[in-house]
């Protein structure tokens, strides 16, 4: 595992596009240790990641259907063909693969090298994914500069509750997203119920997820997430509650967002126009005036 990038000065742009350097990383080294220890378990459908396998029943159609609304036409069988998606914190590729099978070109990134090795290995079983999925072991911060406004959609599923600096994480998501592009997040609300069920029950009593997987302080409410998204020029379209039944092993949608929830936000196109105009006025743009 190469930790060098964790300490290096990362660069990122703020919503006003000024380039700034930050020594902040969104990667928490204790999270890296936790996920590294489980890196060989991703594709065990009955194991530690069973709830993430079954979460695909909700999150894949959620992403697909919201993206299809933005397309005027699509190829039957490959509905997301032509779309570039960044799957941040892709782990072993549980969500990356079905998005690739829907025809999208998906880049999966994860700071844990061992996760990427598992994802690469599993991808090799399905030749259709060879050209559609590219994996990289890196943080989001490390790839922002070379990917400004590159992706039609960004997915961060069950990831934001593991990052150290959510504001920086969202700001970087916004920078790599095309104007009009979609950001999809699934995460856990910060409530008393999520402490009782998400940590005490799931980790300490039922053993649904390994102990120490989650830290309640890192959970985020939909209201707080929405405020960070909006301050970065993203408008929230949908916030939907998700409920996991540990006895059946299935997820279903719920109006109640006090535990898990999914959010879909769209990057404004106006912000980019304003920013471009400001750059032209200040003479910073490469565009001849
Ligand atoms: C609960 S897993 C979710 C994996 C995958 N998104 C899925 O749902 O199947 C969280 C993942 O986020 C990654 N991760 C942790 N901190 C991260 C960060 N700061 N930036 C990107 N990914 C991170 C972990 O290595 C881990 O693979």
UniProtKB/TrEMBL annotation:
Annotated metabolic or biological route of this protein: Cofactor biosynthesis; ubiquinone biosynthesis
Location comes to: Mitochondrion inner membrane
The organism's superkingdom is given as Eukaryota
The enzyme's main class, written as a single word, is transferase
The residues listed in the UniProt record as binding Mg(2+), with positions renumbered to this chain, are: 158, 161-162
Cofactors that this protein relies on? Mg(2+)
EC number in record: 2.1.1.64, 2.1.1.-, 2.1.1.114
What keywords does the record list, in alphabetical order?
Answer: Magnesium, Membrane, Metal-binding, Methyltransferase, Mitochondrion, Mitochondrion inner membrane, S-adenosyl-L-methionine, Transferase, Ubiquinone, Ubiquinone biosynthesis
Q: Which PANTHER family match?
A: METHYLTRANSFERASE, UBIQUINONE BIOSYNTHESIS O-METHYLTRANSFERASE, MITOCHONDRIAL
* Quaternary data: Component of a multi-subunit COQ enzyme complex, composed of at least COQ3, COQ4, COQ5, COQ6, COQ7 and COQ9.
NCBIfam families per the UniProt record, alphabetical? UbiG
Record function comment: O-methyltransferase required for two non-consecutive steps during ubiquinone biosynthesis. Catalyzes the 2 O-methylation of 3,4-dihydroxy-5-(all-trans-decaprenyl)benzoic acid into 4-hydroxy-3-methoxy-5-(all-trans-decaprenyl)benzoic acid. Also catalyzes the last step of ubiquinone biosynthesis by mediating methylation of 3-demethylubiquinone into ubiquinone. Also able to mediate the methylation of 3-demethylubiquinol-10 into ubiquinol-10.
- Know the name of this protein? Ubiquinone biosynthesis O-methyltransferase, mitochondrial
UniProt source species:
Echinops telfairi
Report which gene this protein is encoded by: COQ3
């Amino acid at each position: 595992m190469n930790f060098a990038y964790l300490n290096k000065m990362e660069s990122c742009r703020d919503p006003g596009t000024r380039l700034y350097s930050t020594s902040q990383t969104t990667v928490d080294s204790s999270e890296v240790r936790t996920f590294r220890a489980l890196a060989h378990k991703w594709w065990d459908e009955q194991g530690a990641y069973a709830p993430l396998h079954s979460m695909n029943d909700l999150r894949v159609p959620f992403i697909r259907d919201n993206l299809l609304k933005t397309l005027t036409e699509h190829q039957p069988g490959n509905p997301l063909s032509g779309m570039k998606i960044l799957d941040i914190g892709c782990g072993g590729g549980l969500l990356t693969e079905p998005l690739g099978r829907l025809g999208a070109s998906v880049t999966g990134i994860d700071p844990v090298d061992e996760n990427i090795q598992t994802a690469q290995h599993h991808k090799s079983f399905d030749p259709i994914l060879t050209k559609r999925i590219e994996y990289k072991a890196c943080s989001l911060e490390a790839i922002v500069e070379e990917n400004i406004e590159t992706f039609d959609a960004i997915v961060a599923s069950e990831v934001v509750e593991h990052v150290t600096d959510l504001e920086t994480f969202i700001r970087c998501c916004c920078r790599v997203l095309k104007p009009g592009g979609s950001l999809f997040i699934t995460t856990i609300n910060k409530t008393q119920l999520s402490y009782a069920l998400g940590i005490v029950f799931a980790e300490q009593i039922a053993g649904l997820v390994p102990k120490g997987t989650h830290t309640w302080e890192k959970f985020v409410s939909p209201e707080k997430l929405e405020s960070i998204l909006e301050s970065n020029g993203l408008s929230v379209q949908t916030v939907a509650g998700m409920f996991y039944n540990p006895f059946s092993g299935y997820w279903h949608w719920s109006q109640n967002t006090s535990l898990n929830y999914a959010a879909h936000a769209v990057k404004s196109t106006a912000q980019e126009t304003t920013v471009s105009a400001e750059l032209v006025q200040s003479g910073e743009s490469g565009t001849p005036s």
